[in-house]
Give the backbone structure.
Amino acid sequence: MMRSFFVLALLAAHTAHAQPASLDEDAARDAVHRIVRHSGLQPNFVVRASTDTRTAIAYVKDRQRVIAYNPAFMAAVLDSTRTDWSAVSVLAHEVAHHLLGHTIDPSSLRPGDELACDRYSGFVLFGMGAALEQCLAAQSAIGSPHGTRSHPPKHARLEAIRQGWEDARRLRGGLPPEPTNDPDALRYMITFVNDENIYYADSAGHVVWFDAGACPINLGELREEGKDGYALQWMEESFFVDGKLAIWRRSAHGMPLQVGRMQAYAR
Ligand SMILES: [Zn+2]
């Protein structure tokens, strides 16, 4: 398989033992441009190495689409993964935030947005020649096992990357998409305040998010508790669901706070 100049240049840094891996702005810009080209678009992105950002970020400034990354963060990713594809996958994730319109209103980032970007990174890296392990390397090394309201846990993110990579592989091979969840197995739709994603609980008690390809990604667990209530474990948080399907969080002062609701799923 033909290697790009970018990958070769970084590999050279890796094989020279004493030299720590790094990603200079030119190499990062080249990588971003190749990612965008593999999406069939013109590369109108500004790429900046900046210590103002802790990891990597996509934002719009003066009507320009910017991707900024912390060079020390990227060097650490490259060092711990020993593959240049880890840097490409981090950048591809940020490119996706632009392409999917998430930079228009950055205050409303949802967990599903992160998974959609992860999925894209796996998809586009397949087209660029990466093996699945290479696509997963960065998230395996730096992902957090605990989810937050904006960032899903590592296991969900790795699954999203895998699904994107697998979808691209199937597309290349003329195969249909991966089989999707059985809609008959879905029992509830779950929504949270300030989160436009819709999650679903299936009859096995898995709480899943569906990406555009309707592939489920596991984010939590729902189990019966008491006579007509449920315990909901979602992204490392515990909630309870009452008989009217309202989802509650207990505050530190013991005052319950409604954070969402479930409703029976009807096809
Ligand atoms: Zn992101």
In short: Confidence is low (pLDDT under 50) at residues 1-18. The pocket of zinc ion is lined by residues 93, 97, 114, 117 (CB under 6 Å).
